[in-house]
Amino acid sequence: xxxxxxxxxxxxxxxxxxxxxxxxxxxxxxxxxxxxxxxxxxxxxxxxxxxxxxxxxxxxxxxxxxxxxxxxxxxxxxxxxxxxxxxxxxxxxxxxxxxxxxxxxxxxxxxxxxxxxxxxxxxxxxxxxxxxxxxxxxxxxxxxxxxxxxxxxxxxxxxxxxxxxxxxxxxxxxxxxxxxxxxxxxxxxxxxxx
Length: 194
Ligand code: S3P
Prior knowledge:
Elements: E1 20-24, H1 31-42, E2 45-48, H2 49-57, H3 61-68, H4 70-87, E3 93-96, H5 105-114, E4 118-122, H6 125-132, H7 145-159, E5 164-167, H8 173-183
């Protein structure tokens, strides 16, 4: 695979570095774990959008869904993404987005506008379901295997619009982080383009 080259708009003005990278994909894809590993390798900060939403609201994601509904959650999610995007000129950032964030057309458009790479972490739906099962109750949209699969199938074509897709099945978090670094042509520990 040819290394991905950052469009000019996505590079730091002074040192030619990309300023952000976004991890998307379904629940259980490993966005947070891979994001932390990637950020450590690149020496960028790591941001989990759901953590920021919980901090902003003073409620868990589950509580937001239960008390205010999914539509209210999506509004907060978009607002928090906008806030985050205002910060990326200043601080190089690896950001993990919740499973539904990238499938909202407005959010995808915001990400296109900043021209930062969007990485789709993929895995078979059975694997994703197994990864989510131990924490059943935490994720409001992980209800039963049938609805989980239906939502995955509906969303997958949208995730495929990401800059790159990385299969995570059977791979360690570190191996996935390495694959992303190499596919995007990033230099570990400095984040410089090779
Ligand atoms: C959601 C996924 C969750 C969280 C919320 C909604 C979704 O994040 O944002 O429960 O719509 O798929 P994870 O993908 O990190 O589980």
